[in-house]
Each structure stands twice: as structure tokens, then as C-alpha cells.
Fold this sequence. Notes:
Layout: E1 4-10, H1 18-27, E2 31-35, H2 41-44, E3 55-60, E4 66-70, H3 72-82, H4 92-115, H5 121-146, H6 161-177, H7 182-185, H8 191-201, H9 204-211, H10 228-237, E5 241-243, H11 254-260, E6 270-274, E7 280-284, H12 286-296, H13 305-328, H14 334-357, H15 372-388, H16 393-396, H17 402-412, H18 415-422, E8 440-443
Parallel strand pairs: 1-2, 6-8
Antiparallel strand pairs: 1-3, 3-4, 5-8, 6-7
Amino acid sequence: MVSHSYEIHYFESASRADLPRMMLEVAGAPYKNVFIDFATWGEVKDTMAFGKVPKLVVIDDSDGSRKELFETNAIVTYLAEVLDLVPGDGGAFARAKAASITSNLCDLEDKLRRTYGLPSVEERHKAHEKHIAETIPTYLKYHERLASVKGDFYFGDKVTVADLKLYQMYCLFDDMYAARNPFKTHAGEFQNLNRIIDTLAAGPAGEYARNRRDFGYVQYTESASRSDLPRMMLEVAGVRYQHAFDLSRRPAPDSELEEDRDTTYRKAGKLVVVDSNGARKELFEYNAIVACLAEVLGLMPSKDAFERTAAACGPSFLCELDEILRRTFYLPTVDERWEAHKRHIAVTIPEYLKLHERLVQGEFYFGDKVTVADLKLYQMYIWCHDMYAVRSPFKTRALEIPNLIRIINTLAAGPAGDYIRNRRDFRWDPERCEWVFDGMVLNQS
């Protein structure tokens, strides 16, 4: 029997390549990821059939010959056949029945993807709310009936492509909606589907999802990122502001992006201060924006120069940690990024937090008043949660940093926490993988 190995050519994200990778993992088939750099995609695109990825390369291990297959649905259909991920005896009807389930879930996935193309943040939020409350539960209701046969999976006791597509969708909803994932909020209504998910999560599919699905890249558009702290400061101060997103950008080489940006320092992130007469002033550079807002919004400890400087030290020190973490995303290989992140979780972040624990002088860093230092700490807590979830050192080392946790809990119960829960997530698009924030407008009355 001829043996084969495989290559998946795609970007360093889950997205369209998620299900093919999961199928290969579950089947124990040898494969490797061949990552495409967004910076060179314009050059590579024309070499791909239909100008799209993923691409599956099938390698005959006996002679090294290679065959290429494009289009996600075709790749999934092929892998289901050769990896025996079809129901029963693999006859035509059984294959078609499994395909009907994956096709319907792909239809749901496409509806979610179209949401990212809506022209405004408000329209996207509204669409996502509808998907959470109506669209997804409606689809899952029908699938719950199909999964009601005896056995752990859609088609009895055998894992098929239909089960893996369901689990891939569960992971996607978890990426997008976290605790509001309809599989979780409607768990009582989807017991059969959650049985499939739990069974897969305990096996190779779950091991893949936990350990090899996230490639360490930040995958957001309209993201929190550099503008997170300025937004939080404005929210806590109760000052009116607007987001000015540039949705026209696409991934491009750094030099091309920099030439394209009409900013003083050719960097994304701009504060526009608008006075009552409509006059506008622009400010660039993250640290300058934070310093300005801390002054005008009263987020400094006092007017004393020493205390103001001391308050700036806290954010500066945490910004240093922030930069260390960000540099991890640009290491050249997945393995290097993973090793760096593990080191940050175990050593780097705990060391920084240990030093900050000593600086707290009351309910907050500087007594009973919220300052920019406290908000920077909370923003770092949220970002560590974004990246590391339950492995965030703020959680795993909570007993070692009670003062910092007290600050975080206090802020979480107020306007800063309200911002985080309701207005920080701008719904990211995992296929565009760029950080875009082109401005913020502060309306001063």
C-alpha cells in the first residue's frame, strides 16, 4: 500500500486551514505546515490555482512525487476519503450524508465571515449580537436532532468529518465569542452536540486545538492593542470620543504600509483633540498620547512633579514588559514563539509583577485615587488574559500579588471593567491578520 505525507500551505492562522489540519491530526497522518507570509502574498497569489489558499500537497513517500489540491471543500472531501473519516462503509450515500452536515456548517461559517465586511463597527456589533442570539442557535437546533442517534458522534461510534467540522466551529465560536459561545450559553439545548465536542476535546482533536492551532500571531483588525489604554482612560474619565478606523487596509510589507500612512511618525495610532469650535490638534506616539490624557483627564496622583513622575514610572515599566511580549510575535518560527511565550508565563511576567506588588500604597498604586498607573496595570491584565487565558500569571500567581489583584478587581467593577466587557472587542477577522488603528477623536466641550 502506498503511503503518503502531506503539506498544508496557508497563513499562520487557523481559519480556512483549521479543519484540514484537524483531520490530519486526528488520523495521525504525517504532515507539515508550510506558512505563507502576508508580506509576500501578493507575489505568491498568482502561483495558486484560483488565487486562493489553503493548498494541500500530497506526497507519495515511495518516489517523492507531489500532487496539489486547492479549495477547502475539495481538500476536506479528499481527506475524509483517504483518512477514512466517512461514516459506515464509506458508500456514496454515507459520504453524501456526512458532506451535507459539513456543508450546512460551512454555510453558517460563511454567514459569520460576511459580518466582517459590514461597513461600520456598529453594524458589525449588531450582526454579531444577532448571530449569538438567533443565527447560530437556529442552525445548532437542527444539528442537535441529527446527532441524536446512539453513539458518541453524528454517525454512531465512529469519528467522521462531520464531527470534526462541528468541533472546528465550536473552536471558532470560542475564538469570537468566548463565554458567549452559543454552545456554552445554550448547553442545555445541545446536549448531543456538546457530547460530541467533549469527546473530541478529550482526544487528538482537542490536543491539536489546545497546542497546535494557535500560531502565536495577533489576529485582530480594529483591535485593542496600542489604543487600549487611551480608550480605557477616556472611558474611565467619562469623556466623549469616537473611533476612526481605516477598513481599507490589507496586509502588506512593512515598508509599503509605512509609506502609505499619512502620520507624523508613520505609525498607526493618532489622537485628535477637537475643541468646541471644531479646531483639531493631532498627537502621535503612544507614550505621548497616554501622558497627555493622564494630565487633561486628571489621572495623575497630584500636581506634585515628583508624584506625577512616579506615576509615569509604573506605566513605563509595564510598557517595557508590553514590548517584550510584543517582540515574541515576530520571532521567525512557531517553535521559537512558543518557547518565548512559555518563558514569559513562567519567568518574565511574574518577575515584573513581583516588583509592582511592592509599589502599591493603598486601594490603588497611589492611595485611593485611580491613576494612569492603575489603568495600565488593568490593561496588561486583560492583554495577558487575551494571550494566555487561564495560564495568565495574574491568575496562576494571584496569591503572590494580592495588592495588584485588588486593584484589578476594583477597576473591573467600575467603568474600566464596563469598557472591557462591552466596548473593547471590535470583532477581529482572522484572515486579515493586521493591526489597524488610525485615530481617535476626543470631543472636548
